[in-house]
Amino acid sequence: MSLTTTVPLTLPHLSSHAPHHTQSHPMTTFIRHQFNPIRRRSLTLAAASVRQPDTIPFTPTPLTDIKPAAESLFHVSIDVSDAPDLASTYTLPGQYLQLRIPNVDKPSFLAIASPPSVAVTNGVFEFLVKSIAGSTAEILCGLGKGDIVELSPVMGKGFCTDEISPPEEYRSVFIFATGSGISPIRSLIESGFSADKRPDVRLYYGARNLQRMAYQDRFKAWEASGVKIVPVLSQPDDGWAGEAGYVQAAFARAKQLYAPDSTGAVLCGQKQMAEEVTSILVGNGVPNEKILKNF
Q: 132, 151, 170: which is the final residue of a domain?
């Protein structure tokens, strides 16, 4: 069935600039001065022991790496090797947790970008964090190696790929991500879902421009695993010859045949994109339960 749906589009809100990680951001300087996150784990654990108990237990863990991933996006790695009970709560790509910074009231909800196997083999949770002015995420992106953050147990149903298995029956899988929504999609792809055994697996990945598109260094490996990458830029630079606009419209323009009863999809990112992609797929006969979301 060809797709001829016309999709109304609205520009999603995106922050314009990221703090340069090699320089001290004003808010970071303020936070370091006011709150001075404790670098020594023993001291932090002692401090945590006298804190009033919370409804959700939080585990103090040290940052092992923070570095730019793209404009306004940062790679964040956290050591969970001393918290095996926490690491073991991560079982499916698409799951998330709450991250709290000591003496900062509001936690952030973050999807885990690394596959569950990395927590087991390397003792690490990896994240892709969007730095938004005035948010806990901005403070996090200004911290450094050894600073302590607190993690809740892993939450959420994740992407239940059993719904689109076995690959012989679900031959087409369409994946859609926008902005930092690529984070749990990375976990999905690198965990493996037999993409190489399916003839048509496509990732439509939307960003404002290439400067805002994370994980470009992983595209080659993802394609080798059987996932065709379709970058879609809403405000491309001059000379861009790829898809422009929004992922839902790019998918609608593709006009490639697929059998609805042997098709699955995975969505993560901007709400309007998810709603419109779902509408397109369901309208073309794909069962709603075969459209996977992580919330």
A: 151
